[in-house]
Amino acid sequence: QTKSWRIVAVRRLSEAQLEALSEVAEVDYFEDVDESNRADFMAALSRAHGLIGGKLELNEAMLAEAPALQVVSTISVGYDHLPLKALNQRRILLCNTPDVLTETTADTAFMLIMATQRRLVELSNLVRDGGWRTHIGPEYFGIDVHGKTLGIVGAGRIGAAIARRGALGFGMPILYTAASSKPALEQQLGAKRRELNDLLAEADIVCLSVPYNSDTHHLIDADALARMKTTAALINIARGKVVDEPALIEALHSGGIRAAGLDVFVEEPLPPDSPLAAMDNVVTTPHIGSATHETREAMAQLAVDNLLGTLIGSGPLTAVNEHVWRRADAIE
Ligand code: 8YV
Over the stretch 228-246, which tens digit does the pLDDT of each residue have? Predict the structure, then answer.
């Protein structure tokens, strides 16, 4: 029996998930897309009704070559890498994977907070490299986490989860920025809403958890960094381009701020010759905000459920642009 749906899948799907897709559709699976198989990928995309995967590369020119496409299901909460406007114009549904990665990404933020305040990587390297010869004096001391003021830039789902950890686990006063006030955070955690400039000036640890878009491009620029305390740390688990990276490097070099914990960068993978990779006061991780076995599995499963729900079920679970979408059979 020939299956009427065609799906292109890229990266991060388990065998069981690919099997579930194969039960209802012809599936073209690509472990990766690069120059060696781009033509095959485009040929598959030109016939596809659905596209699913992590780190999807899709631009307007590619969309023009995908006339049958009805749904794009990304295995990520962020969708700044996808052409939302063009998808909207074509009434192609875009689904993402919120909620299932919230707690893991908040854990990542806290890992970077702890590592940055207590100089975990630097001191672990000291032990590994045989540098622990005598008692540890003040030159190796860190800075407390508990009780410090935590500034959350972007108190959405992930920001709120970071705030909960800070307030409930570490007794941290919480400041946050958000488009509207968050009564739950204020009542449960005593969090206080601030304008960005005030938050930057008051916080001991500034944590970025905003989506990347034209409003948040270089939100943290040289001016913003200059407003921060010289003792403060900047944590970024959002997107590299929320920060003006050369300005950050300068601030870290000159003592404008004390330290940074970074999971995301303007260019990923981070070029090994980036100053950020070599600074003692910077902790870097390779964009692993959601990268645990449990969470990546849950993200992929939600993406599968979104795709199948859209093509054959009662609709997607978590769509970005549900308003532009009508079932294909209702369009013609
Ligand atoms: C993704 C992320 O794995 O969900 C997001 O937005 O940043 C990560 O969880 C990454 O974007 C690659 O797809």
Answer: 999 999 999 999 999 999 9
Closest-CA residue, ligand 1 atom 11, reads 76
- 186 and 88 in a single domain? The answer is no
- pLDDT by residue (tens digit) across 129-154? 999 999 999 999 999 999 999 999 99
In a shared domain, residues 198 and 231? yes
Which residues have C-beta within 8 Å of that of residue 126, sequence separation ≥ 6?
A: 132, 140
Residue 49 is part of a domain; what is its CATH number?
3.40.50.720
121 and 267 housed in the same domain: yes
Tell me the best of 32, 33, 209, 287 to mutate to test the pocket of ligand 1, counting ligand atoms within 8 Å of each CB and taking the most: 287
Q: Is 54 in the pocket of ligand 1 (CB under 6 A)?
A: yes
Range of the domain at 134: 102-284
Q: Distance, CA 162 to ligand 1 centroid (Å)?
A: 17
Q: What number is the ipTM of this complex?
A: 0.95
H or E element, residue 105: helix 102-118
Distance in angstroms (rounded) separating the CA atoms of residues 212 and 159: 14
Whole-prediction pTM: 0.96
SS3 call for 74: strand
Residue nearest to atom 6 of ligand 1 (CA): 78
- The catalytic site residues sit at 239, 268, 287
